[in-house]
Specification:
This protein is an alpha+beta fold and about 190 residues long. About 45% of the residues lie in helices and about 10% in strands. The chain contains 9 helices and 4 strands; from the N terminus they run ααααββααααββα. Strands 1-2 form a two-stranded antiparallel sheet. Strands 3-4 form a two-stranded antiparallel ribbon.
Length: about 190
């Protein structure tokens, strides 16, 4: 799992010596180029290895990159799979207006199913059906497997040994999360029946 982004504050920027600044600026540009050139997030280990830099240089370059991006339309984001550049959320309405085909509509059944898996994992198909109160379509599970959002990992020690379903780092990436801890809390269901 990637580390978190370093704090973007004036103290971190002021700690960079004037002798190191040109080299760190170049490193931050290289990181930006690599993140633009890939469709998948890059881990800190991959970036440090590719650029042959230390953790200290990497952290300082990330601070500089964040500072350089702070006035632009892109932001540096950390997900479960690594670092990536993405368009700031404030521009989503424009993108959706100009490129409506880019919006992917997820069915209510698919959202309910992935929610049950994310919050209650590991779960079996039967567990999902019990929570949702309806039979789970094989097509819904197939879509989640095809997107790479879920995986089978082990079997429940019960009659028939059903497969245990878990979410994947691709699920976290798709929703801009770095861990399951960032999922919103479940609403208080007391009194709702």
């Amino acid at each position: 799992m990637p580390s978190t982004l370093p704090d973007d504050d004036t103290h971190a920027l002021s700690a960079i010596s004037s002798d190191d600044a040109p080299q760190l600026l170049t490193i931050s540009r290289y990181i930006e180029v690599l993140l633009h050139a890939t469709e998948a997030p890059l881990t800190a280990a991959n970036l440090k290895k590719a650029l042959n830099i230390s953790q200290k240089q990497f952290n300082a370059a990330l601070v500089l990159l964040q500072a350089r991006l702070s006035e632009g339309v892109l932001e540096l984001k950390v997900t479960a799979s690594g670092y990536r550049l993405q368009i700031r959320d404030t521009y989503s309405p424009l993108i959706q207006h100009v490129f409506p085909q880019r919006q992917e509509r997820l069915s209510q059944a698919l959202l309910e199913t992935i929610s049950v898996i994310a919050y209650k994992q590991p779960v079996t198909r039967s567990d999902i059906e019990q929570v949702r109160g309806v039979t789970l379509s094989s097509n819904i599970l197939r879509q989640l497997f095809d997107k790479g959002w879920i995986k089978e990992d082990g079997y429940k020690d019960t009659l028939g040994q059903p497969a245990l379903l878990h979410t994947t780092p691709q699920f976290l990436d798709a929703f801009g999360l770095s861990s399951l801890d960032e999922l919103p809390p479940l609403p208080d269901m007391v009194g709702l029946t």
